[in-house]
UniProtKB/TrEMBL annotation:
InterPro entries: CinA-like_C, CinA_C
Organism: Cryobacterium mannosilyticum
Record's protein name: Nicotinamide-nucleotide amidohydrolase family protein
UniProt keyword list: Hydrolase
Gene3D superfamilies, A to Z: CinA-like
CinA C-terminal domain: residues covered: 7-160
GO molecular function list: hydrolase activity
Residues spanning the membrane: none
Length: 168
């Protein structure tokens, strides 16, 4: 019998081996992504922590997202995701050093659309160094399925980023 690969365990191993740290900013996933990362023994070597900024105002006050951007586009927007990922890196710095990577989740998990965005519209934000990326997702299913898929896709995206490829 072949063991099922655990991509999260592989990610934590890769982050640790590379000496990289990660910080997580979550909205629609409400802590699920951080919980998935710290499920792996030894994650404390690379996971700085996570911030759940569920309310739009907290995306600004806790993560530094531009309030004009939030006012114009709302929280479900690719640039909001990028700014969340950038902001969490500095907000969750350790020993005066920002996290090497930031990952953020924002979107409409349902049951109702949010800000004109249909259920299943999700943006992942990633930040490393001076760069930032947004990955748009169109997910299907109920609220729990959309949130679970978002976590899985976020783990994949960070894995892709540290492997040296552009996350998409």
């Amino acid at each position: 019998m072949t063991a099922v690969p655990d991509l999260t365990a592989d990610l934590i191993g890769a982050l640790t081996a590379a000496g990289l740290t990660i910080a997580v900013a979550e909205s629609l996933t409400g802590g699920l992504l951080t919980a998935e990362l710290i499920r792996i023994p030894g994650a404390s070597l690379c996971v700085n922590g996570g911030v759940v900024a569920y309310q739009t105002e907290l995306k600004h006050t806790l993560l530094g997202v531009d309030p004009a951007l939030l006012a114009e586009h709302g929280p479900v927007h690719p640039e909001v995701a990028i700014q969340m990922a950038r902001g969490v890196r500095t907000r969750l710095s350790t020993a005066g050093r920002a996290a090497d990577l930031g990952i953020a989740t924002t979107g409409a998990a349902g049951p109702d659309p949010q800000g004109g965005h249909p259920v299943g519209t999700v943006f992942l934000g990633l930040s490393r160094g001076g760069e930032g990326w947004a990955i748009p997702l169109r997910l299907a299913g109920d609220r729990a399925a959309i949130r679970a898929q978002t976590v899985a896709r976020a783990v994949e995206a960070v894995h892709t980023l540290i492997a040296g490829s552009r996350p998409e």
